[in-house]
Amino acid sequence: MGKTFQKPEALADTITHYCPGCTHGVAHRLVAEVIDELGIRGRTVGIGPVGCAVMMYNYFTFDFQEAAHGRAPAMATGAKRVRPDLIVFTYQGDGDLASIGLGEIVHAANRGEKFTTIFINNAVYGMTGGQMAPTTMPEQRTTTSPFGRKVADVGMPIKVAELLAALETEGYIARQTLTKPKYINRAKKAIKKAFTYQIENRCFSLVELVSTCPTNWGMTPVDAIKWAEEKMLPYYQLGEFKTPDQGQTGDSKS
Amino acid sequence: MGKVLMKGNEAIGEAAIRAGCLNYFAYPITPQSEVAEYLSRRMPEVGGVFLQGESEVAVSYMIFGAAGCGERIFTTSSSPGISLMSEGISYIAGAQCPAVFVNIMRGGPGLGGILPSQADYLQSTKGGGHGDYKLLVMAPASVQEAVEMVMRAFALAEKYRNPIMILGDGLIGQMMEPVEFPDHLKVEATNKDDWATNGMDTRKSKNRNLVKTMYLDPEELNAHNLKLKAKYEQMAREEILYESYNLEGDYKVLIVSYGTMSRVCRTAIDNLKENGLEVGMVRPQHLFPFPNQAILKAAEKPNCQAILSVEMCMGQMVEDVERSVQGKRPVAWYGKCGGEVPTPEEVMEEVQKLMN
Description:
The complex is a heterodimer of chains A (about 250) and B (about 350). By secondary structure, chain A is an alpha/beta fold. Chain A has helices at about 25-40, 70-80, 95-100, 100-110, 150-155, 160-165, 180-200, 215, 220-230, and strands spanning about 45-50, 65, 85-95, 115-120, 170-175, 205-210, 240. Chain A has a single domain (about 25-240), classed as Rossmann fold (3-Layer(aba) Sandwich). Chain A has a seven-stranded mixed β-sheet with strand order 2-1-3-4-6-5-7, with helices on both faces. In chain A, helix 1 (about 25-40) crosses helix 7 (about 180-200) and helix 3 crosses helix 4 (about 100-110). In chain B, helix 1 runs parallel beside helix 6 (about 145-160). In chain B, helix 2 links the parallel strand 2 and strand 3. Chain B folds into two domains: about 5-240, Thiamin diphosphate (ThDP)-binding fold, Pyr/PP domains (Rossmann fold, 3-Layer(aba) Sandwich); about 240-355, Rossmann fold, CATH 3.40.50.920. The longest helix of chain B has 21 residues, at about 220-240. Chain B has twelve helices and 15 strands. A five-stranded mixed β-sheet of chain B has the order 4-5-7-6-13, with helices on both faces. A five-stranded mixed β-sheet of chain B has the order 10-12-11-14-15, with helices on both faces. Chain B has a two-stranded antiparallel ribbon with strand order 1-8. Chain B has helices spanning about 10-20, 35-45, 55-70, 80-95, 120-125, 145-160, 170-175, 220-240, 260-275, 290-300, 320-325, 345-355, and strands at about 5, 25, 50, 75, 100-105, 135-140, 165-170, 175-180, 210, 240-245, 255, 280-285, 285-290, 305-310, 330-335. With about 350 residues, chain B is an alpha/beta fold. Classes of the chains: A alpha/beta (about 250), B alpha/beta (about 350). The interface between A and B is large, with 33 and 39 residues. Strand 2 of chain A pairs parallel with strand 9 (about 210) of chain B.
């Protein structure tokens, strides 16, 4: 019997700076496994965010660019347009993608840019210390919504996957979560699909991952998972919101 | 190829292609939109990339992403658009990526106007974005010079791994003049394997590359900034460029002026000469690095009584001229910044005032 488990080649052999119970590590590993399985490490360029994952390039073993806050989709557009042979992905949190960078992601998706986005939705700004994000749940307490997010004042959380799926341009848009092995397996499948669509030069692809932030939520890792499942999943429903196969005759498999 | 009559903005677009840059992202803004219009037709003809971004902010990061991959890239905009791009320019300079920006200036602040101006002198030469960085700033005075500067800019961007700013006023973009595209200014491709994120498979060394600007360790960040500083000092040693006009004569006044404004000053100098008053001029072709020594030398001529900085703005260059002259002569300013270009007569009048 051969090896049944090993570190992906795309993942660096190092300790991460992420807090205990944070799901960034799981998301990183899934991306690395997919890159290994698709054999694309040597032509992949990752584009990191501003946020907790700003130093993610330390945890991968291929080319990386470090974006300004929210601008990763514009950088990915530039990279992919001039080097369509490269595999380009952005990895962004909710402050980065859904707040300051909302314009960039909407337009990149609408142009049908052939890159992939991994979107980490943990309902809070992580690195800056737990401020309210566009994805923060109603009544959720954060350092800038100390009495809970008041919908009458700042509106409802943005459902990024649904928002982008509403664009008419072809694309692959899915939401998964990382709270249980069952979901993690589904998340990996979605990530692999997203990269595969890019390799096939089909469409823009984005996988939103409902994630946990025990530190800024003020919970134990176990409670954080419970909170994500009880509070976030009913609002942020899982599944594929759009696939490029929709509306195309004779090609409904995925 | 012989001379052709072209509008400045179109010639700028063509010059980039002739230099060997086949990638262009931009956002429309008056008075430079013709560059984007021209290249939206022309890039497909030469197998190049054209993309209209959703904002100048996005465009500056498209430039960053493409430049980070080691591809030759440029964009054009006008003053308010350059303000938006300044965030990206800071990152591009910090990450040491080559890229060329063209600013066809209009009046400010804010929306200002759409007519020619030189009101982005300080933004271009002293920063614009945050942090310790410098741009090599080129200031063309004709469509032909704009063409040649655009072509040279790609070589300079790659030599220094730094963004280059071409600072033209609205007239440079809008007027038509005969131009030719010198073949010898085509820029050969350079190897960027030691830093660009061009895909590990394409490189001999299998080390991965990082394009980044963040150095959280204070010593590391300081070392990074010292490295950038050394680069700007090298520019100051090697890239001074200016043109002298009528400096052989026994001039009483020295004009410092650049771009379209300097052409008006030439006419004023010629007219004054006919009236018996000698006036010299130093025209900086590069605004950073600034030709301090040349201006000092010209100012120190025994009969030179005063220096006049003539600009289509409210005197943004005066501090640089004063610093050059080191208090040895009085420095005056004349200019307008509403979109009207001062006439030769107005410049002559200002010079004569200095003689009274």
